Each structure stands twice: as C-alpha cells, then as structure tokens.
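Q: Predict the assembly, please.
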Amino acid sequence: MSFTLPEPEQALLAAQNVTMRFGGIVAVNDMSLALPKGSICGIIGPNGAGKTTMFNILSGFYTPTEGDVLYQGHSVKRLKPDQVCKLGIARTFQNIRLSSQMTVLENVMVGCHVRRHCSWWMAALGLPNYYREEREIREKARRLVEKVDLADMVNEKAGSLPYGAQRRLEIARALATEPKLLLLDEPAAGMNPQESLDLMHFIRQIRDEFGLTILLIEHDMKVVMGVCEYIWVMEYGAPIAEGEAADIQSNPEVIRAYLGDDFVKGDQE
Amino acid sequence: MQFNRNTFICLALMLAGGLFLTQADLFLSDYQLYICKLFFINAILALSLNLIYGFTGMFSLGHAGFMALGAYMAALCILPPEQKEMMWILEPIIWPFSDLFTPFWLAVILGGLVALVFAFIIAVPALRLGDDYLGIATLGFAEIIRVLLTNATPITNGSLGIKGIPDAATLVTCYVWMLITLVVISRIVYGNFGNVLRCIRDNEIAAQVMGINVFAYKVMSFCVGAFFAGVGGALLASHLSTIDPKMFNFLLTFNVLMFVVAGGLGSLSGSVIGAGIITVLLEWLRAIEEPMEFLGMEIPGIPGMRMVVFSLVLLAIILYRREGIMGSREITLAGIARFFRRFTQTAGRAGQ
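A: Predicted assembly structure:
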C-alpha cells in the first residue's frame, strides 16, 4: 500500500515552494505540500519549526513572500481569511479561540453564518425567509453539536467547558462552515491518552462522514502516526523529510531533528 | 406557535403603551411629560450606542457628532423657509436648505440618513483601529463635525445656533421611534447576525476564520448605530427647540455612554432602564442645588452639586456592580412568565 502524491493542479490544496520572511527571519523556507482529496495528512516538527506559520499562510492570514498556494488548482495566496473560508477551508487554533461568553450552540451558529443567503437588513425588517433560514441554522448547529457529543451542554457558556470539550466545539464550529478541507492545529494538545485515542477515531469519522480532507499539526506522535497517511517534517522553517508514517519513524534526519546528533551517531555505532 | 404568541403579546403591550401615552397629558404635568420625552430620546441614543459598543465591541465616542448631524438636518427640514430667512443674520442661508421644508417624520429619517452617510465616511478609515485608539479617533471625528457645524455658517447659522424649532416631537412620536429602534436593533442582535457581532467583539481572528467579513459587519453595526443616533438627535432638536454647536460637545457622548454602561453592556433592556434611571435621577437631583436648611444650617444653592452626587453614584456602580444593572441579561416574556410562575408557587407553598 503505497501513497502517491498528486500533481499540484490535481491536489485539493497545494503549496508550491512557499517562503515566508518576517524581516530578516525566515519562518518558512521553500516548503511544498500537495494534499490528495480525502486524505489525512500531517505536518510535524520541533517547536518553532514554522508549522503554525504554514497554517496561517494556508488559511489566508499571511501572504507568502515567495511561492504560491493552490486550492483546487487556483491560487488563493492573496485572499483574506474570510474569503478562504468561503472557498471551503476551515481551521482550528492551537490556543483555542471560542467566544467564551457565548453558548455552545451560538458558537456553532456563528460558523453557519458563512453559508447563509439573507443579509442583515432582512433581519432588521423581519422578513419570513430570514426566520426560515434562522431556524435552519439553529437545526444545523444543533446537529453538529450532537455530532461532537456536546448535546447536553448546548446552552452552557463555551468558556465554562472542559478543555477537551472546547477543542471538540472548535471542530464543530469549523465543520459548520461546510469545509472541504479542515486544518487542525494541535487537536490533541492537553488531552490524556484515552482522549487522544478517541480523537483519532473522531478525525477518521468526520473525514468519512463529511467527505473532508484533513491536514493536522500534532506533537502527539501516537496520534500522528496512527491517523496520518502522509507526513511532512519541518525544522527551522525548511522541509527535512516527507513520507508515510513508517518511513518517517525510521528517517535519521527526523530522529536527528527531534533528539539531536548524538542520538543518531550513538544508534549507528 | 410560541413565536406567534410572543409577537402578539409584544404588539399588544406596545399598543397599550402607546394608547396610555396619548392620554398621559391628562394626569402628568408638563414637566413630567418633558422628562418622559427626554427618557425616550435617551433610550434611543443608549440603544444605538449599545449596538456599537456593547454588542460589536467598538469603543466609539462619536455619538455627539452623529446626534448633531441629525439635529441640524431635522431642524433645517422642519423650520419654515421664512423663519430661516430671518434667523440667518450672519450670512444668508444657501439653497437647497433655504427652501427645504418637510413633514417631521421625513425630517427625522433624513437626519438619521445624514448621520449614516457621515458614519460611513468615518468608518472606512477609523474602524481599522481597535480598542482605545478607535475611541480617540471617533472622539476626534465628533469634534471635527462640531467645528464644521460651527463654521458652516450659510447652512447652520454658525455659533448662533438655531432657535424656535417647532416642537413636533410629541410624546407618542418619541415613543414610536424608541420602539422602532428597539425592534430593529433587537432583531439584528438576537439572531445569528447578533452572534456574528458578538463573535467579532470576543475574538476577531476567530470571526475571520469563520468566513465573516469582519470589516463589513463593523461598518454595518457602526452605521446602523449612527443612523439611530441621528434619529435621536433629530428628536432632541425638536424637543429642546434650540440647538447650537456647543451643546454637542463630548460631554453629551459621555452622558450616553453612562446610560449604556450603567444599564449593562450587551443588554437592550439594560440600556432602556439605564437611560430611564439616569434621566430621572439627573432631573430629580436638581433639588439639591436649591438653597436648603440642613440640621439648622442654611446651605446656599450650589450649581453643579448634582453632578457631584451623580459622580458618586457612578463610582458606586463601578465599584460594586461593574457589569451594570442588567449585565448582559435581558427582560424577556419567557423570563417574566418564569418569574410569575415561581412567585405563585412560593405563594402557594406559603399558603399551605
């Protein structure tokens, strides 16, 4: 069972030789990706390797200094985050970004907003099709909340939820935007082994159910190796290795990046 | 079904309120009617600022400017042309303002629209700022508007102001405009658009990632708020019958801000209650500025004394109830029903 990378034009999302400089600092250096449709891929690397910067480029927060980002064959590197989301790329954050004063349901309803047809003035006038759409959004949000097992907390304030539940809520909110591609930034951070196991199962489940393609950043190697079909490894902003989980695990470059030179040498002697 | 019944009850309550107010002059003195009208106008201003600051989180201090625009526009619309000809003594009034003469309802809407247009012009550069910086910028813009009004003598009669504006803003008119403000803003705020605005307030980056055009929604909220500020200004002009640029200085903005903060940021019923309490309190406290006898001592009337008491009240609010009277809660029909059910239950238990 070998995994072949698609051509950039055929990939759902492709980054071509992306470089991102902040003044004199090169945060991402000549990075290329190509995500086949329906796959689950991962980016790993030590702290400060530029993984989150890469996510910020893909989701439209940064415009790369060099290189291009193709989504379904079209360049999206100059689009703003909200336009990128409209095209079907959703993401979550490493440091959870929910509206803590709003309820679980309201948070997910915000995600539904991008697919609605009514404008705000229809709400001000109270037109019937506005109310119909409002009901549909509420229903959809409720279904998604159930999907992530938060049904019994639907009216709780998002800020009062335990950490794992907040992560799932953030995923539900991302799903509400009806994405084709989901970018998960450290979804297993702060989870215990059992929760991580559930998360792996959950990631596969939503991929199949919503027909998603998923790209994730993760430090929990059990999750990465267990769920990702293809992995890119970054160090100091540059790609140092890529391949399937088994290849990555035995790649000396990766071991060196994570554990240092001595470990690799000692291993060989 | 629930929704229909609630709408029906709301409509009935609004209508009953209106009918009550048409008869209010039978049992209220002129002074009480005056305060009542002021309360409705202040409620409009508080609601509009709450949309901008409480729900969308934009710290805007430009309300006095928008009110001034609405007030001047409405005043120019409802003054008869002959009267305008006579009043503009520094420089003659220019056309089209010299011949402008519209019914009051149109004047109020035009006042709101002028404020909205200026708000849009201000919004595009200023809303790129956040937090306190936005406050300073909008404060500056409000002062610019005031200086413009002072110096645009052929339109505004400069620092002399406009006098003898017909008192077309009856109690019922002010009430109806307050209801319109309340209904429009609550419809925007208590649906998914409100969720979007609150998401922008809490976490702008998350809102962007959810595909929300943050800037467009900020502009929308700012402009709708400014429109109703203009409406409030228009009603105020007709209510006071005299306006001049000096009255629209930043103190007026802080007055409105006080209603909103005292009532509770992010609560519409709080804004109405805050406006009510502070309007009445400000009038009621006039009593302590009169000369009085206290413990056998003769205390002469001190002008401005009520502001001292007032600042103490505000300090108490800030110290002991920072989230305001209502916090971010609302008075709803369901809430009232629940209160009465609990009330009757406890009463029933007590009876047994």
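Chain B is about 70% helix and 0% strand. The mean pLDDT of chain B is 87.
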